Amino acid sequence: MAYSEDHIALAAEYALGTLDADERTQVETMMAIDTDFKVIVQAWEFRLGVLNQMVGSVEPRPIVWENIKSAIGHSEPQVPLVLPEAEPPVAPVVVAQAPVVDHSNVIQLSNRVRRWRSVAMTASAIAAALVAMLAIEVYQPDLLPDGMRAKSRTQVVEVKIPTAVAPSAQYVALLQGQGGGPAFILTVDGATKNFTLRKVGAPVAEPGKSYELWLISDKLPRPRSLGVIGANDFTARPVLSSYDSDVVNAATYAVTVEQAGGSPDGSPHSTPVYTGKLIETVPPAANR
User: Which fold does the domain 170-282 belong to in CATH?
Assistant: First the structure.
């Protein structure tokens, strides 16, 4: 059933206790025959019940009752009521009756205004109570009843500290020719086996020719190509990762001059012009 604004205001006033005896009787009769309306009244009673929990009982001071008793004891006796004597009957006078004006609409409007004022006061009281509850919950939560206290939440945060990566060993080889001057510097990382080849003294390769780097080890049946050396000052590659550390660390590294683009069959076609072996320049962290 759909209820009007007057019904809702009437339910709120009943819960607030501002109705007179006739209106309360009307509300109680409606609640007895209409369960939906009874639910609306109970909902208002639940909302306004918070106000009772926010206000504690206050006992008047003993002096108040003493003053009341004193005032009653010293009050003067009341004068008996004397009714005036009845006057003799007067002949009736016929008076023209004025037209009756229907004030029912004015009365209904007045009641509606009064009810909505009560609803507005009720809403303001609820808002003030909620603000007070919020302030108490934030600053003095111990003053609230157990059922109204906010439950504390504990959140466990796991902080992972990254593990420090220990520096790996570093190896360097000076690749030089018969003249003794270094032509290339080869640097190898002991952990990743990535290498970087830097050109320092080698002349530019002849037209149609390329420098190619080789790994030579007695543990391998033949030299293995590590790729063509680029024209830039630095050449970096990860190709050593496929070899064992013993092979990488003990091998001889050589540079040959091949046709442009490198050896066509994976074997060197000239005598090495620059060679060198790795030496450990930075030991691993465990040995420091």
Answer: Immunoglobulin-like (2.60.40)
